[in-house]
Write a sequence for this structure.
């Protein structure tokens, strides 16, 4: 990943030089607004390139990921992680239960990838009905104190465990809100 520095050659036009500025970044998502005040932004003196340092970019990405999730009523990164921890599953086991790549679980939890609505619903089921883990993935046993504890019932009419109906987001590896967010930010 390119890391901008003051005085560096612009990665976009390869002619201009980057300078650093303080800027208020505003993001819109479905009519809701998230602002970051006083972000250090590197701008090209010739073209419209703008970038953040890697650390700032990751921090902004993560906050935005949770912002979009809250707008969409999806679990936050930390909630997804705590559901997995409550089930007592490592990322590899969770990946098996959800039929995704192990890396995808990590990306959900660090905000790099936003879970689909389908996936979020699955997390909701597992949160309230931990024993569903063993229905979905019989090779994984969860500790007995986790598997009882909920009065929720799952009937065929409201839950269809056929994998092909639930998991078409299993290739979600490539589905992420791109990290080039700063480029699209507008002035406050
Ligand atoms: Zn440039």
């Amino acid at each position: 990943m390119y890391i901008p520095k003051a005085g560096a050659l612009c990665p976009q036009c390869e002619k201009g030089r980057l300078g650093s500025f303080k800027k208020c970044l505003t993001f819109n998502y479905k009519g809701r607004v998230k602002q970051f005040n006083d972000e250090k932004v590197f701008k090209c003196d010739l073209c419209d390139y703008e970038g953040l340092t890697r650390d700032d970019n990751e921090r902004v990405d993560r906050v935005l990921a949770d912002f979009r999730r809250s707008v969409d009523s999806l679990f936050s990164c930390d909630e997804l992680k705590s559901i997995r921890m409550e089930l007592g599953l490592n990322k590899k086991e969770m990946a098996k239960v959800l039929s995704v790549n192990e890396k995808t679980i990590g990306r959900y939890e660090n905000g790099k990838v936003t879970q689909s609505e389908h996936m979020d619903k699955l997390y909701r089921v597992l949160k309230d009905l931990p024993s569903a883990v063993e229905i979905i993935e019989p090779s994984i046993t969860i500790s007995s104190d986790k598997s009882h504890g909920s009065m929720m019932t799952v009937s065929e009419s409201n839950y269809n465990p056929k994998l092909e109906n639930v998991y078409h987001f299993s290739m979600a590896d490539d589905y992420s809100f791109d990290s080039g967010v700063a480029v699209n930010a507008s002035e406050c």
